[in-house]
Fold each of these.
Amino acid sequence: FRGKPKADLEAIHKLLVSLSDLVIDHPEIRELDINPLLVYSEGKGATVADVRIILSAPGSEE
């Protein structure tokens, strides 16, 4: 937004890479919902305020 400090894009990048690694390491994750993701100004990081993870049923091949 105009006049606002730049968002911490590096923090977003690191979060997305970490989430990708998590999903690769845990194929039982069927859904992952982050809401909200709080992103602070450049260099200040980001915070996942709430997350919901849905797993596949044991033994299922989803």
Note: Helices lie at 9-25.
Amino acid sequence: MTAGFAGQSLAQQAPVNGWYKVCSKQEDNDICNVQFQSVAGNGQVVTAVSLAEIKGKINRRVFQVTVPTGRLLPAGIKVQVDDKKEATIPYVYCFPQSCMAEVQLDDNLVALLKSGGKMTVTSSNYQNKPNPVEVTLNGFSAAYDGAPLKQDELVAKQR
């Protein structure tokens, strides 16, 4: 149920390349997402990363990675920051246009992302061929520690 909050917020945003933070109130919860979206020329989200913090009636922190469909689900999504140890994140949902993997977000992961230069996100297609996507961590700390975008700033960034 709570993962839907973060996924819902991510899905409602138009494609934006780069790190940014958006916050909203949904029911009795304050939700902030620090997000990165890599978007293809046709507008399809190639990879999206979200660090969601939900506070209020529900308190939860999650790290989510969204990739297109046609993925080999048992393989999960591999995530590696710079040359650090690779971690596998299990898929939790698939929708008609994307599949999402998710783990609990903790301070160690946030610190790793803040100190890193790039994150490699690798999903495997249905033929078990890896599809690595490099995500820059440039701008992550500023987005994570900074104020969320206001609606007019978000609209301007999406143009």
Note: Helices lie at 2-12, 107-115, 140-145, 151-158.
Amino acid sequence: MAKQPKQMSISEFQDMIIERINNPENSIYIKVKSKAIERTEYLESIREEGREYGLTDEELDDVVLLVDKTLWGFGILDYLINDDDTISDIRLVNKDTVRVKRRGKRMDANIHFISDDEYKKYIQFITGRNSVNMSISNAAQVFTDKDSSPTNILRFSLVSDLLNTNDSPTLLIRKIPKKKKTFDELMRDNYLTEAQRKYLVDRWRSGKSILVCGPNGSGKTTFINAVLESTNPEKSCVVIQESEELYCNSHPEMIFRKILPAKGNSSFYYDLKALGTLALMESFDTIVVGEIKGKEAASLAYAAYTGSQFMTSVHSINAKEGVEKIIDYALDDQPNRDRKHFSKQFQTLDTVIYVQDYHISQILHMKKYNDKTGEYEFEDVTFKDGSDEPIFKEVS
């Protein structure tokens, strides 16, 4: 007579299954990602095993749901990632603190991990699923997951406990909807007005260049993704980005590229600057750089001065300072140049937008660069209620 397995409580059985999943020797996350494990069959095998340990069908429904969300979802964070489209950022600080940014406002997520060990195992779950190695040389890294969520592209910024003083890793999850928000949806969210939409789309479609400024997580990428759909189809376009956040399915000649960072001891890499230089050699009509963070600003300046249309974003405290910041970045790459050199090149930057708290709070029109004063002359663009006609007011 076959020996019957001992009886288990639901918590004992659940712990056994999760421990098995988290054991790297079993490579279960890798098998799931490579589709070597079939979802329905695996979950049914868990159910059958649970019956052998005396669990009821109702108890097994709970266990199978947990395993399903662990392997094909995001466990304790699954709802925040897959079902709540008002959330753009999720930050794991420690076992007791999970914060979210909802429509530009930061708040507590009311989610807690049982222990430090469970919290660290969840981080390991994310790294295991994405084949990320958290060694000393990779103590801080950014990686993208395009496949695990049916609704969002996920960008992870992970810092290990080697760098954090509380001996705990931290993880920021940025959600980029796979179905981008249209301008109609953004107007319903009070992101912008109909007059602003018409003005900005007309500017972009007619070949004007745009700089999108704002704090971190304010909604800059949201605007770029929306306006990409209005790119002139008769122009060739390249989109260069660090993480795969920007996309467009409507343009016949829009190419998307991402950086290739150096790994380990390799000196082989393509950064934003290298990809920007490559774009100049390929004679694209329109160049989009997801975000300016450094020396790639110099390549963008040369693109601007050769007549290419361009769009990018930068972190800044206001619209005017956004222009100054990309000049600073360009000077970092070429300190032998003076500010006037890059200021003249960026004078083709026709439109500057400032986004704050998921709302376009200011639009500036650049009139010209004044050689005598060494300053740009800007006009503030506003609209009368109920009118699409812009009102231009000189900015001092």
Note: The first strand starts at residue 87 and ends at 94.
Amino acid sequence: MKINFILLKCLVYALYINFLNSQLTIQNNSKNIDLQKPYNNTKGQNFNLLHSIEYGKENVENSRLKRAVAPNPNLKWPRTIYYTVRPPLPAKKISIALNGIARQTCIKFVKVPRLNGPGLVFYRGDGCWSLLGKVSSSSPQPISMLPKCLFNGVIQHETLHALGLDHEMSRRDRGHYITINFQNAAPGFKHFVGFDPNLKTYNLKYDYGSVMHYNRFSSSVNGRITIMTRNMHYLKTIGQVHAASFKDIKLVNLHYCSNVCQRKLRCFNNGYTNPNNCSLCKCPTFFAGKLCNKLKRSQRGCPKQNLISTVNRKNLSIQGIKSCIVRIIAPKRKRVKLHINNSQFTNFKVCEPFKGLEVKFLLDKSVTGARFCGSDRNKLIVSPGNSIILHYRGFKPTDKISITYKTV
């Protein structure tokens, strides 16, 4: 059975190469991709605005193809990746999204009018999809986009697929973090969220705020939740379309940039040596300083940044237009019990970063915290460690939070 599966993978990969070659035109001994012919047989990831996958019989079959042509582990992108954008796609939007990755990694994206060899071709196809990892050492690689997918995070999502990042839900440990309700999803949903036991995670923790994570209603056929977070506080965090998370970028840097800096810094809070400036650590959100050992500064009118928790209940209230980062600390080997009595912000289907309230209560403070938006009452959070860090970001005078906390 194993031999047959390997033969099947080889056969499908050969079919893909034949198909890709059929889309190329040779002019003056250079390979120029012909995008007049759609890549109908290489679809992988299909998105709409809310990360709901558009399914059809063809899409499901092609998702299997995408899985079968998993990249050769010996094929890896160079640190300079050439790309081209075919009209009518807006080159500026795509460049902004790619620059968002480049600014934080050692990878540079260089726009060219045409590709002579390997690189990325963004074009308007029949969906929003990308192949997983580099699949050829000599041919251009397509990334298909539609107008409804031209959001920064979605462009980065598909680009990260091309760099080799799979969905966060494909991790082998996903069962500790999410439950997938297949009975609420379209028939082919399992092909997009199947876990890969060989997926390399570099020992990074599961990140609910990864741009590679679908939202709770992805591919729902009945309006019910398809992806349930085991920690309910993260239910409106999954499905980000704003930008790659700290963990997403760290994964790229570990895979492509680990040998850029000869000397590694001792960074705090799971920061790491910045490949674009080896004298500084690259810090998770909320943290700052050369070694990530400080909190980012709050704005004027915010509470004290470090609050000491005791066995007696204390109150914390913030209201209005401001950005506040607050750390609540209990004694060692104790925990913080935090109660959100009331919070009021603009509501979103998926809570956006830097809008509303984000609470980092897990032991690993480098992963995305639980995000709250809209109106919430009576939310209880107990930290596994002795600290909680929260970020209040109000954009209206009526935005507010009322919190109580104590040591347990």
Note: Residues 124 and 146 are 6 Å apart (CA to CA).
